[in-house]
Amino acid sequence: MSSLYSIVDGKLQPATRRALMKESLIEDWVAADPSLLGLDALVIGRQVPTDHGKFIDLLALDASGALIIIELKKDRTPREIVAQVLDYASWVRTLTTPQIYERAERYLQTRLVTAFREKFGEAIPEQLNGSHSMLIVASELDPASRRIVEYLSEEHGVAINTVFFNVFEANGQEWLTTDFLLDQEEVEERSERKVRPPWSGYYFVNAGLGEHRSWTDMKRYGFVSAGGGEFYTKRLEQLAVGDEIFVYDKGKGYIGYGVVTSEAQFASDFMTPDGLLFEQALAEPRMKRPGEPADRAEYVVGVEWRKTVEPSQAKWFKGAFANQNIVCKLRDQATVDFLITGFGVGG
Questions:
Q1: How far apart are CA 149 and CA 160, in angstroms?
Q2: Which fold has domain 15-195?
Q3: Integer Cα distance of 218 and 12 in angstroms
Q4: HEC string of 257-306?
Q5: Distance between CA atoms of 254 and 301, rounded to whole angstroms?
Q6: CA 170 to the chain's CA centroid
Q7: Per-residue CA distances from 120 to 123, 169, 320 (Å)
Q8: I need a surface site. Which of 7, 14, 29, 315 has the fewest CB within 10 A?
């Protein structure tokens, strides 16, 4: 569980943890910004009625079309919370694509295809709800519930996790921190093993082009990168020297194939043939994140590019694999075959 300290005159002053006053306040925050829970997701329902006479606090949709059940408790969770979210999941799994559209558009007050494209920058998958996951949000989790969540995820590959919201107060200021019970990427990986084909041996990597990253820099100096906090940067630690990667530009398609030459490190320490990366002429100097705290620093993984294309010529076909992860194992065989041909791998 997180602790928080302020530094006053060179001394640490602990902040006081306090309870949230209203459960609805958490719901408001998450509904407005699911990234508070580490989710790249579109909220499509709030207080969603089930056929069992219950109400799901929040229902969200990720870029792959999978549904996410979010249940919020402002205090220590009651022991029945796990049974409750499993009951919700038993109903959610029955939702058809048309039923999801109907509920989402009623909540969003706009067309789901439009909201999805605005959120993710790409077309909505034809089939929704191919899988679903559960997320419990609370300030604490009782020991029995903790053991049950760990057992379901670690032994049976159930996509369930808990996020802890902690509010701290000191010197008239308030802070919010979040912690996961289990590593969310490991939860996703275990659940995918149950329904996904074997790993192809290739990795999917999100380029994350935009404010802090330029494809020109990545190609010129040989790297991929991520930053903005440990939740994002630690995903790069999956990559080892010799791993083969296909790089994806969100909303466009695949733009590069390469082989990892060095493992994750601070971008400021990364050496190019001409010296330190940050001493080179960068097309996107904001990669240095000036004025940002050290824990938001950019990390890079070295890459020897075998073939790259510009984003305007990105390789894509309808139904190709893409998701929100920074790094993940590429399993979709149709996508793998397409990319091997498109990038001339092994040719």
A1: 7
A2: Trna Endonuclease; Chain: A, domain 1 (3.40.1350)
A3: 40
A4: EEEEEEEEEEHHHCEECCEEHHHCCCCCHHHHCCCCCHHHCCEEEEEEEE
A5: 18
A6: 31
A7: 8, 35, 15
A8: 7
Could you tell me which residues come within 8 angstroms of residue 155 by beta carbon, excluding any fewer than 6 positions away? none
Containing 28, the helix (H) or strand (E) segment is helix 23-32
Q: Which residues pair with 301 in a beta bridge?
A: 224
Q: How do the domains of the chain map onto residue ranges?
A: 15-195, 202-342
**pLDDT computed for residue 220 by the predictor:** 96
Return the pLDDT at 301: 97
Report the CATH number of the 202-342 domain: 3.10.590
Per-residue tokens: 50? 């089930």
Cα–Cα distance measured from residue 85 to residue 279, given in angstroms and rounded to the nearest whole number: 51
Specify whether the CB–CB gap between 134 and 159 falls below 8 A: yes
Quote the mean pLDDT of the chain: 86
Chain centre to alpha carbon of residue 126? 22
Q: Of 149, 165, 231, 180, nearest to 27 (Cα)?
A: 165
pLDDT of 105 above 90: yes
Q: How far apart are CA 239 and CA 164, in angstroms?
A: 28
More confident residue, 286 or 4: 286
Contact present, 330 and 204 (Cβ < 8 Å): yes
Q: Residue 170: which H helix or E strand, with range?
A: strand 160-170
Q: Which of 27-36, 173-182, 190-199, 231-240 has the lowest mean pLDDT?
A: 190-199
Phi/psi zone of residue 257: left (φ > 0), alpha (ψ -120 to 50 degrees), beta? beta
Of the two residues 305 and 124, the one the predictor is more confident about is 305
- What's this model's pTM, rounded to 2 decimal places? 0.61
- 315: DSSP letter: B
Phi-psi region of 177 (alpha: psi -120 to 50; beta: other; left: phi over 0): beta
Distance CA(197)–CA(337), nearest Å, equals: 14
73, 81, 85, 112 from 57: Cα distances, Å = 10, 12, 10, 20
Name the residue among 221, 239, 233 with its Cα closest to residue 308. 221
Q: What is the DSSP string of 233-249?
A: HGGGGG--TT-EEEEEE
Q: What percent of the chain has pLDDT over 70?
A: 90
Cβ atoms < 10 Å from Cβ of 5: 12
Q: Can you tell me the distance from the alpha carbon of 223 to that of 259, in angstroms, rounded to the nearest whole number?
A: 10
